[in-house]
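Our preliminary data section would be incomplete without showing what the modeling component actually yields. Below, a chain of 123 amino acids is followed by its predicted structure, encoded as tokens that our downstream tools consume directly.
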Amino acid sequence: QVQLVESGGGLVQAGGSLRLSCAASGRTFSRYAMGWFRQAPGKEREFVGAISWSGDSTSYADPVKGRFTISRDNAKNTVYLQMNSLKPEDTAVYYCAAAQIGPTEVPAAYHYWGQGTQVTVSS
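Predicted structure:
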């Protein structure tokens, strides 16, 4: 069992930066690939990016490539999403999730999900 808690969301102006954190409980965190997803009002949840259990492999959705970076610290049971050059269209609730394989953009591969953190980018 893995419990995930996101933090770091908030209101930021376009062009600004935020770093989201996802803290995991359980001693098996390092065995899981981790992903970030987001859901904007009226839209389906979409893949943002993911990182392998070791941290040596990452994958990103096209809209965030070059702007967002995922990293993890297995000693701290935490995964991060550094978001730079934010745009109003990045406004969404951001979720982290844990999968036994990855990195993967397939939501069904993720067994555990956090409760989400709101990111709002003003123009």
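The mean pLDDT is 96. The chain has no helices and eleven strands. Preliminary results of this kind motivate Aim 1 of the renewal.
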